[in-house]
């Protein structure tokens, strides 16, 4: 498929499908695309192929090795003979997308979809990048005026939602199935585009950990709206599941009475670090730091340190640094002894003690350090994460580059959306 850069769905209808040795498989009857709730072009998942027995089966796009004007060739391997069943978040391009009604983005112009073009990406995926649309016909006396066909990028056509195309009311459970494959930041962006009622239904159906991750990626107003919708007991559970610094940022936006009530409902062990963070100004190291860095005692081994930073739930910036402290290891810790960058850990024997590899010369930040000081500190020492120490050299938290960026970006950057932020950046 090296020379193919755009294929219209109508061109594929009825094309014969052959195996790698030239054996006949069947004929293309449709394309299956995975619908999205944002304006990004949906990914083409595969083909619906009708066998000689009239059974229709699904063939993933990754199995397709060649698309020619008169045939499609598949890679080596067996074809799953189970009958094709459409999933809730899938659309049939020819059967459902073609002839669908929509509008041109930012206008009142109503159009009808005549065809859809798929294009390959650098990751071997195919996406429905273009739509061929025609303005809805208008009567002129006894005849009709047929408007010209336009080929537009997917994002310039609005109104092609899940409900419109599949004829199904997309329930919270079906939306959660779609969200399972998405990053929390993308789920948050999608939630903001939903009606308030549906947004609340989805939040009610999410488990606490997932909702906490998504809540951290929402703008403040949307965070407060969702938190106010939840029952107070569940709201407290969600705050416990959030990173302490994110929970503190959210609580700081609430009225004092609401803030105190939620803190009282939280488990004391979970609320203690949040209360401590609330005592700092939001634009200082103390207000920006997390209270849950990776902390080990001096007698821990390099192997133990590597095991800790392998935790897939640990945010990437926190995984770059291990802090060595005297007991206790919960912040505020015992006396701080130094830190070890993960690259240093990779070069040390697994049985070596982390204390022997600790950098004792890297200065720490004080909780009252300003945002400007924190920014210069991370830039000067080329760090993604750094220690925050009190006057008695106890580790009280760690500052990470993502929290600094969050405060350096213009206000309302989350409302802008990732699509606008990354516009013009090539897709991976």
From TrEMBL:
Superkingdom of source: Bacteria
Keyword Signal: no
SUPFAM superfamilies: CBS-domain pair, MgtE N-terminal domain-like, PRC-barrel domain
UniProt-recorded Gene Ontology molecular function terms: magnesium ion transmembrane transporter activity
InterPro entries, sorted: CBS_dom (IPR000644), CBS_dom_sf (IPR046342), Mg_transptr_MgtE_intracell_dom (IPR006668), MgtE_N_sf (IPR038076), MgtE_transporter (IPR006669), PRC-brl_dom (IPR027275), PRC_barrel-like_sf (IPR011033), SH3_actinomycetes (IPR058838)
Entry keyword set: CBS domain
Gene3D superfamilies associated with the record: CBS-domain, MgtE N-terminal domain-like
Every CBS domain range: 289-356, 358-416
The keyword Glycosyltransferase is annotated on this UniProt entry: no
Signal sequence extent: none
Cellular compartments per GO CC: membrane
Name used for this protein in its record: CBS domain-containing protein
Organism, as annotated: Amycolatopsis suaedae
């Amino acid at each position: 498929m090296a020379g193919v850069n755009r294929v219209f769905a109508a061109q594929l209808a009825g094309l014969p499908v052959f195996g790698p040795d030239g054996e006949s498989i069947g004929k293309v009857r449709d394309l299956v695309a995975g619908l999205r709730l944002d304006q990004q072009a949906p990914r083409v998942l595969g083909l619906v192929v009708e066998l000689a027995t009239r059974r229709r089966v699904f063939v993933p796009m990754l199995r397709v090795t060649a698309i020619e004007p008169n045939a499609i060739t598949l890679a080596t391997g067996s074809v799953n003979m189970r009958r094709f069943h459409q999933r809730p978040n899938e659309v049939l391009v020819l059967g459902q997308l073609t002839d669908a009604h929509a509008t041109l983005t930012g206008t009142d112009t109503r159009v009808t979809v005549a065809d859809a073009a798929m294009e390959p990406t650098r990751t071997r995926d195919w996406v429905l990048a273009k739509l061929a649309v025609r303005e809805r016909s208008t009567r002129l006396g006894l005849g009709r005026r047929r408007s010209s066909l336009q080929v537009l990028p997917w994002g310039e056509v609005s109104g092609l939602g899940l409900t419109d195309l599949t004829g199904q009311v997309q329930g919270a459970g079906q939306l959660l199935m779609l969200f399972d494959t998405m990053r929390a930041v993308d789920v948050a962006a999608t939630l903001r585009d939903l009606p308030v009622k549906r947004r609340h239904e989805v939040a009610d159906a999410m488990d606490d950990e997932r909702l906490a991750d998504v809540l951290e990626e929402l703008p403040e107003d949307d965070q407060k709206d969702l938190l106010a919708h939840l029952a107070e007991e569940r709201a407290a559970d969600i705050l416990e599941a959030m990173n302490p610094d994110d929970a503190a940022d959210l609580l700081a936006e609430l009225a004092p009475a609401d803030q105190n009530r939620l803190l009282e409902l939280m488990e004391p062990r979970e609320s203690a670090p949040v209360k401590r963070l609330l005592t700092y100004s939001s634009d200082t190291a103390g207000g920006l730091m997390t209270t849950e860095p990776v902390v080990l005692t001096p007698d821990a081994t390099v192997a133990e340190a590597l095991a800790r930073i392998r935790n897939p739930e640990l945010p990437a910036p926190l995984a770059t640094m291990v802090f060595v402290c005297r007991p206790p290891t919960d912040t505020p810790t015992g006396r701080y002894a130094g830190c070890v960058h993960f690259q240093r850990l990779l070069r040390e024997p697994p049985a070596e003690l982390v204390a022997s590899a600790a950098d004792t010369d890297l200065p720490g930040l004080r909780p009252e350090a300003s945002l400007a000081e924190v920014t210069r500190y991370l830039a000067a020492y080329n760090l993604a994460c750094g220690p925050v120490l009190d006057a008695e050299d106890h580790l009280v938290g760690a500052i990470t580059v993502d929290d600094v960026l969050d405060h350096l970006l213009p206000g309302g950057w989350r409302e802008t959306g990732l699509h606008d932020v990354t516009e013009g950046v090539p897709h991976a």
